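Hi R.,

Here's the chain you asked about this morning:
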Amino acid sequence: MTNPVFAALAQAASQNEPVTLGIISGVKGSSPQKVGAKALFYADGRIRGTMGGGCLEAEIQQRAIQALRTGKPETFDLLLDHDFGWDDGLICGGKVFGLILPNAQSAGAAFWEKLAARKSPIAWGLMQDFSLRLASFADSENESWQYFETVTPPCPFWIAGAGHIAQAVAPLAAQLDFKVTVFDDRPALLNRDYFGDEIELRTDSWDNLLNQHIDASGTEGASGAFALVVTRGHRHDALVLKHWVQEPFLFIGMIGSARKARTIFEHFLEEKLATPEQLERVACPVGIKIRSESVPEIAVSIMAQFIEKRAELVYRRHVAGPAKQELVSAASGSH
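And the predicted structure, written out as tokens:
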């Protein structure tokens, strides 16, 4: 799954089309976007990505198009108060810092293609002179950076079961930047009529499927892996969980009731099939409480919990940048 802004930059570079890259490099208080949000601004008014929409994005777009004319990069520092955004409803009260880089395509297609592919964790950033560089992770503390970022592959998301819940969850998870793999022993359910092209499908007997392991040392494990257990019954759920709780998943969700969880967890502990620490990574029932009833509503509640866990467990590790660590906690504020 490629990053759309980086992919658009690679395309612009290959076509030698002038574009301006906008980046939010810091946030204090509440804002409509977080640190690292990006948008690409074209001379004809098109925008790829978002800096938060509304008057904030309109202001940045105006500066970006002007920078495209002058060729001069700049920084911005905008206070989202009543005076700035009352008419458009943008009165978050926070402060947004950022960078505007005209002719970002000049870094070359190869530079942006490497970031767009996200095949492995890669660091990059803007120097004080606004030049673009690939970097090593050790370079993050270098004061010569104006902006530093680690781009990581999408988090692997394994789903056991290909029924109605999985069919609703998998496409949604793929849209939310997870790399989705669905497992089931029923080949009839594992087809593209139910799952999108981006989703990997694996079918075999459960004995063979459960002998497959998540990669914790290579590309996948670098981002952190997640799992969801939604098979066709409690017995299969318990069978999958017995194996997957031994894998290095950061978080595992399992469909069912609190009573089901108690029964399975007590059995696992009595039979020494899992440790208390391993079971702490398992949420059953999975999903946040939104009084969901329909399958799409259940899928939304499940993915809301996974998004929350991903933010808590993974992305906090990868937000980097000189003198920006104090801004990270504010970046998740809502307006």
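The first helix runs from residue 4 to 14.

Let me know if you need anything else.
M.
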